[in-house]
Structures are given as structure tokens and as C-alpha cells.
Amino acid sequence: MSFGFFMLGALMMGIGFLAVWKTNWFLENLGDIGELFGSGQQWLSWKLVGIILMFLGFLVAFGLLQLFFATTIGGLFGFGVGGL
Questions:
Q1: Is residue 84 over pLDDT 60?
Q2: CB–CB of 1/10 below 8 Å?
């Protein structure tokens, strides 16, 4: 893990937090991404994007991204935790 990955993860967590906290600002300035979840789901879609971004940012910041994907979907492709 390097300082750059930590800063990238912290930035991702910060943007994700802002997307959850200031959903209306994101909706007004960046538009509707509710097409992903159907009409009328603009707020929910921005909040879900923010939560996912915070989770991925945490994994990047602390060097857990590879372990997370190897553990969760690694078995589908023939490599798991033991294959690291």
C-alpha cells in the first residue's frame, strides 16, 4: 500500500460521503442517473452510488481491494483466497 493509494481512497470516500450527504446538489448539478433504477429514483440512485464509492474507497485506501474481489468472486474464476 502506498501513500498515493491511500489518498485516492480517501478522495473516493470523501466524494461518496458528499454524494450521500448533499444528494440534492449532485442531482441539480450533475443530473439524473435514475435511469439505472427506473423513473423517480434519482435520490436513491445518487445515495447508492455514494455508498458504493465510499466502500470501494475504503478498500483502495487500506489495500483490501484485491483480497475483497478474490474472496467474493475469485471462486468463479478459479482463484480464491488461497490463490493470492
A1: no
A2: no
16: nearest Cα among 43, 52, 42, 60 = 52
In terms of phi and psi (left: phi > 0; alpha: psi -120 to 50; beta: otherwise), the region of 40 is left
Q: Using CA of residue 72, residue 78, residue 79, residue 83, what is the dihedral sign?
A: positive
Single-letter amino acid, residue 6: F
Write the pLDDT tens digit of every residue in 31-72.
878 666 666 678 888 899 999 999 999 999 999 998 898 888
Distances (CA, A) of 60 to 23, 25, 63: 23, 26, 5
Q: Taking every pair of C-alpha atoms in the chain, what is the biggest distance, in angstroms?
A: 46
